[in-house]
Design brief:
This protein has 287 residues and is of the alpha+beta class. The protein contains 7 helices and 16 strands.
């Protein structure tokens, strides 16, 4: 069969449609809404195998520029790793992985999150499993909720939130320039997950599930006490999970984080040496 490797073709409607068809077939996801909202930019780069006008295999590169406690880093995250079931076991994923690792050999490290079915695949390229750590706490308050929902309903809402975000600081030691990945979530699955603290210049990205609150980011113009953030959501909240590493976390419980079908793999000495400071990448950075 004849095939070719393509990359960075997001503005080609036919190729993007074929990519989305494979993503929907594989993961039940489409990237079209993200593209139409303007957040699929040149930091998300599909490397794909094209055969007979159809995308049959893909590994996407996500450029992650960030600071880790003040140190500038250029990491690469791999995601949307998929091959059409009719073309599996023919070496296409290996071909794409080898090309990407070669193309980004000057990065500070490469990481990905693998599902359980392919855990033996990535070590063939030098990747190593790594532990992830997160924080959590229990709280109790009699105070009523002191946050208000900031819905993400349309492009004006998206633009306004980006403007607000850029005027504030994310309250974590790992700071990434990944608005594009964050908006993949906020424009689709998490449209009711942004809250403003009443009377303060502080915004929280969070999800509530009964008495449990998961916090994805805290944006403010001054330092905050992370344990107190959970109390802002009212007396119903008893447990708070942090899906990013917050500042001032000494009052929180650190724990070894694990999730089914999400094994953390890393490649590169600089990234491996940074892991004790990173602990885990924010959930809104995951591709």
């Amino acid at each position: 069969m004849k095939y070719e490797i393509l990359s960075n073709y997001r503005k080609n409607d036919e190729l993007r449609a074929s990519f989305n068809q494979l993503a929907e077939k594989t993961f039940g996801l489409s990237f079209e809404g993200w593209y139409q909202s303007g957040f699929w930019n040149d930091k998300y780069i599909p490397y794909s195998v094209l055969s007979d006008g159809k995308i049959i295999s893909n590994v996407s590169v996500n450029l992650i520029n960030c600071t880790v406690n003040g140190k500038e880093r250029r990491y690469i995250q791999l995601g949307t790793i998929m091959t059409d079931e009719e073309y599996r076991n023919q070496g296409f994923a290996r071909l794409l992985m080898e090309k990407i690792i070669s193309d980004y050999s000057d990065s500070d490290g490469i990481f990905l999150f693998a599902n359980d079915e392919v855990l033996n695949f990535y070590p063939k390229f030098g990747f190593k499993k790594a532990d992830e750590y997160r924080f959590r706490t229990s709280i109790s308050t009699a105070s009523p909720s002191r946050v208000e929902l900031l819905p993400m309903n349309n492009k004006n809402d998206f633009s306004e939130f980006i403007r607000i975000k850029h005027s504030l600081s994310s309250r974590g030691p790992v700071k990434t320039d990944t608005d594009d990945l964050m908006m993949f979530y906020l424009t689709q699955f998490m449209r009711e997950s942004v809250f403003k603290v009443i009377g303060k210049n502080c915004y929280i990205i969070a999800e509530k599930d009964n008495d449990e609150l998961t916090i994805y980011d805290i944006l403010s113009d001054e330092p905050v006490e992370p344990k107190e953030i959970g109390c802002l959501f009212g007396s119903d909240i008893k447990n708070v999970l942090f899906s990013f590493i917050p500042e001032n976390n000494s009052s929180l419980e650190k724990y070894l984080y694990s999730e089914e079908d999400t094994t953390f793999f890393v490649l590169g000495d600089t990234l491996i040496n940074d892991l004790p400071e990173i602990m885990s990448f924010p959930a809104l950075v995951h591709a």
